[in-house]
Every structure is written in C-alpha cells, then in structure tokens.
Amino acid sequence: MVQRSHLSPSSLPSRAKDLKSRLGILLHKPELGHRTGSSSKLQLGSRRRDSSREVLEWRESFDQLLKSKSGVNAFHTFLKTEFSEENLDFWLACEDFKKTRSKTKLASKANRIFEEFVQNEAPREVNIDHETREITRKNLSGATSACFNEAQAKTRTLMEKDSYPRFLKSASYQDMTKQATGRGSSKRSHT
Fold first, then answer.
1. pLDDT per residue as tens digits for the range 137-150
2. How much is the pTM?
3. Are the C-beta atoms of residues 77 and 43 closer than 8 Å to each other?
4. Which residues lie within the region annotated Disordered (predicted)?
C-alpha cells in the first residue's frame, strides 16, 4: 500500500486528474518518440466499402458513432489516449445494465456499476455533479433498469460535447477518413 500522508484525501481526485492531463499532453509530443495515432489506428477490414461508408458516417453525429461497433472501438481507443475511457465504459455498462431482466442480477450489477464509476473516489469515477451522483445513489435502493439514466445522460453529453469533437479532429480519425475516401498515402506499402 502506498502511503500518501502528505496529501489530504480531498486533494487526491484533483491531483489524479492533473496527472492524467499531464500524461495526456506527453503522449501527444512527437519529440518523445510516440505518435498516439500510429499504433492505435483502426484498419479497415474485408468489408471495405461498408466500413468506409461507416467511418464517414461517424462524423454525421455522435449517435452514428455509438451505433457502430467499430466506431465505439475507435472512439474507445482515442479516449484511452486522453485517459478518459471511463466515460464510454460507464455508458456501455449502463447500456448492458438496461438489458438485464433478473431483479437479483439487476441489483448486483447496479451496485457494481455504482462502485466502479459513480461513487466518490470510485476507481474509474466519471465526471458528474454531486446532485446527479446523489440521485443515482438513491436510485440503487430500488434498482430498476432506469436507475443510471440521469448519470448516463450527463456522461453521454460530456462525451458528445467534449471528446467527440476532438476525436473527429484526431490524426487517427483523419487517417481513417482518408483511407475510407481512397485518399490514403501511397507510402503505406513500404511498411
């Protein structure tokens, strides 16, 4: 166990977010010898025409991206470079949770999701306001498939307004669109 006696418990989330931000900046510095887009580019598969159309549809709306399994995978890879994949993981966990039919499984899944993503100091805490966190905590007492709706909606809005526009501007997505439109570099055959 790491001792952090010099840090107050209330300063830990702030310091962790600051560290995530600083590490994210380092990943984007080419002089450090790491290009974030190069190792995490999604390669278009054998269904090239369908995949190409799908890649181009992702820029139409965030919903189009979320409807696509490969879109979700590409977006998740991008979020990892920004150290914010917990937002998408929470959203996906909520989508899976809504499909649960068993009352006992519903309650145990709800507690697991809350402990992993929603409660204060959760290992993969999502960025939601205190009021939403409290509403969600209260919803756990009578867990229904809708108990995370408000927290999920806030997280989705955050991704749509913040991460999604950066994803569309990312080198990785730009490379995918070039491949999809047939404007990829002829230098690719050298690898």
1. 999 998 899 999 99
2. 0.70
3. no
4. 170-191
